[in-house]
Design goal:
Helices cover about 50% and strands about 0% of the residues. It has 16 helices and two strands. The longest helix is centred in the N-terminal third of the chain and has 16 residues. The structure holds iron/sulfur cluster (SF4). The site of iron/sulfur cluster (SF4) has 12 residues, from helix 10 and helix 13.
Length: about 300
């Protein structure tokens, strides 16, 4: 059970300059942190980084923003082209949602990404995390940006727990908001907190010897183990997600619609699972069936 700290107490636990000084020296040189990158290109990076590691995102993002630098350029591309360019980032529904998001921004917002969290939340594919990440990283706003890494750091530093609760709660935003400095460094503080969780205060092996924070409740309590059963790492092999990925590989590798037989050889282990995966791709609108019974990426049915 998390202990509730008195108002303002969490701020005194986490000294902003310790984190900010460390961030200036140690942050990763990621291409979307270049000052010339536009809010749209930052938004694209946030779509891609949901559930995909940085190392896989970097090459795809670089190609993507060179090819489609603005929302209108993205909206003008065919949805099949977009899904194809998404490559093996996984969870291709994100590509479709990004295309929809680009279309709405180009049509309704003069091709400019909104800077207001409430407006961002109305856009396709943008949830609580992404809206605040765009407001913070693209528009330097003092908003709490709360991802899994941030939740874990706050659980350790502030609450003395090994990890955050498995599901995000409204309280997480309040926790992080309470930590933000009251000056114009708040957006960098948010980015630094996330960076600390991604590179030093990692889930399985926190590198406390490299940690810039002089106070951490979890460390001071002697690293008590997490309550309850350990979280199982998410597997991939044999999942429907893997089967969907194999079917998408076949579709991306072919310029023309493919036959059912071409898809069938992509996964022969379990035909029921293969059918289910194909049905789900059709239901998600990522794949369409042609009038002669073949299959194509959305928009490429000829
Ligand atoms: S001291 Fe260790 S556990 Fe605490 S915030 Fe730093 S890296 Fe994480």
């Amino acid at each position: 059970m998390a202990h509730i700290l008195p108002h303002g107490a969490s701020k005194s636990l986490l000294t902003p300059h310790e984190l900010l000084d460390w961030y200036e020296l140690s942050r990763r040189d990621l291409p979307w942190r270049n000052p010339e990158v536009t809010p749209w290109q930052i938004l694209v990076s946030e779509f891609m980084l949901q559930q995909t590691p940085v190392s896989r995102v970097v090459p795809i993002w670089l190609d993507w923003v060179a090819r489609w630098p603005t929302p209108s350029a993205t909206a003008a591309a065919g949805p099949g082209e977009i899904v194809r360019a998404w490559g093996k980032l996984g969870y291709p529904r994100r590509a479709k949602r990004l295309h929809e998001c680009a279309t709405v921004i180009a049509r309704d917002h003069d091709d400019v990404v909104p800077d207001d969290v409430e407006v961002l939340l109305t856009l396709p594919g943008i949830g609580a995390y992404t809206a605040r990440a765009v407001a913070c990283f693209a528009y330097q706003q003092a908003v709490p940006v709360v991802d899994t890494n941030v939740r874990r750091v706050v659980a350790r530093v502030v609450h003395g727990r090994a990890d955050a609760a498995s599901a995000a709660t409204v309280r997480d935003h309040a926790d992080v908001a309470a930590l933000l400095p009251d000056d114009d460094s708040a957006h960098r503080f948010s980015a630094a907190l996330m960076e600390l969780g991604a590179t030093v205060c990692t889930a399985r092996s926190p590198r406390c010897g490299l940690c810039p924070l002089s106070v951490c409740q979890w460390r001071q309590a002697g690293f008590p183990p997490a309550d309850g059963p350990a979280r199982k790492p998410q597997g991939y092999a044999g999942t429907d997600r893997q089967v969907r990925g194999r079917l998408m590989d076949v579709l991306r590798a072919n310029e023309l619609p493919v036959t059912r037989a071409q898809l069938d050889v992509a996964w022969t282990t379990d035909v029921v699972q293969r059918d289910r995966a194909l049905d789900s791709l059709l239901a998600d609108g990522l794949v369409t069936k042609t009038s002669d019974g073949r299959f194509a990426l959305l928009g490429e049915e000829g």
